[in-house]
């Protein structure tokens, strides 16, 4: 009791002093309520750690059904996700890599970023809301039907102290897309083409290994899983690159955020894109032929010359 009274006097006293000083130095509004600001917690992230922010769609099984997404992969819907990911990386220059699959996107900030003074809540809420608003803005560029309700995304921050931890995190997400996509591809073939009910397809696949599902796809549907679009099998990696198109003079390459669909679990990826873990200088990306999706994702960025020059 006695302690609480003392504490109240102390809080009031220090507040009065602070407020009076503020009144002399700048014309800020002070009120007796201002002490509540001291209740806000410091959420500054530790120095020298990889900051990963992952956003994930809320109840996207329902959202995908409501908007008639193709099963198991809707190319255009995945491109809306990629366009939103690109928009986030255009806004937050300290993100060195984005990785998207299904209804989720992960963003990796440079270890030494000082963006928003490394304040966790600011970083997380800006990235999540930027991703969501960009998803909505990009929708009509890829989808035929209109949005029937507002999508929303959750967001989380995870910190990884070592390069190995970061690589394992990204490998985990890419292994996840492989397992899910192989299962879903076989499942929907059985349902949509062989006429099995969902339950029958589930029973048919229960306990099967990857090799069994590969064999089933090949024997029953003539599908070589490894030839399906890489975006479905590997997800999408977004990297900042100096883009050189065709035989264009290399010096004329302009920086853009490029979607690629490579294996990132093996060492080859990290040898090829050394800028991610090393001192960050965007690598070169030579596009020999623009496929229609890459062209659309890049064209929008390359149009915005002024923005790109600043990256
Ligand atoms: P959550 O995240 O707990 O709120 O719940 P969901 O339903 O978002 O579950 P999650 O995130 O584990 O799984 C993603 C769902 O999104 C999954 O049910 C399939 C759906 N989805 C994502 N991309 C596609 C697509 O391209 N086509 C179809 N048909 N569905 C997709
Ligand atoms: Mg989800
Ligand atoms: Mg998900």
UniProtKB/TrEMBL annotation:
Q: Name one GO biological process term.
A: tRNA modification
Question: Where is the tRNAHis guanylyltransferase catalytic domain positioned along the sequence?
Answer: 33-161
Give EC number(s), comma-separated: 2.7.7.79
Q: Where is the signal peptide?
A: none
The cofactor(s) it depends on are: Mg(2+)
Q: Catalytic activity annotated for this protein?
A: a 5'-end ribonucleotide-tRNA(His) + GTP + ATP + H2O = a 5'-end phospho-guanosine-ribonucleotide-tRNA(His) + AMP + 2 diphosphate + H(+)
Keyword Electron transport set for record:
no
> Matching InterPro entries, A to Z?
Thg1_C_dom, tRNAHis_GuaTrfase_cat, tRNAHis_GuaTrfase_Thg1, tRNAHis_GuaTrfase_Thg1_sf
Thg1 C-terminal domain: from which residue to which, for each copy? 164-250
Keyword list (alphabetical) reads:
GTP-binding, Magnesium, Metal-binding, Nucleotide-binding, Nucleotidyltransferase, Transferase, tRNA processing
- Chain positions recorded as GTP binding sites: 56-61, 102-103
Residues bound to Mg(2+) 2:
56, 103
Q: Name one Pfam family in it.
A: Thg1
| Origin: domain of life | Eukaryota
A GO molecular function held by the record: magnesium ion binding
Free-text comment on the cofactor: Binds 2 magnesium ions per subunit.
Binding of Mg(2+) 1, residues = 56-57, 103
Q: Does the keyword Transferase apply?
A: yes
The entry describes its oligomerization and partners as: Homotetramer. Interacts with MFN1 and MFN2; functions as a guanyl-nucleotide exchange factor/GEF for MFN2 and also probably MFN1.
What this protein is reported to do is described as: Adds a GMP to the 5'-end of tRNA(His) after transcription and RNase P cleavage. This step is essential for proper recognition of the tRNA and for the fidelity of protein synthesis. Also functions as a guanyl-nucleotide exchange factor/GEF for the MFN1 and MFN2 mitofusins thereby regulating mitochondrial fusion. By regulating both mitochondrial dynamics and bioenergetic function, it contributes to cell survival following oxidative stress.
Q: What family classification does the UniProt entry report for this protein?
A: Belongs to the tRNA(His) guanylyltransferase family.
This chain's protein is named: tRNA(His) guanylyltransferase
- Origin organism is Drosophila mojavensis
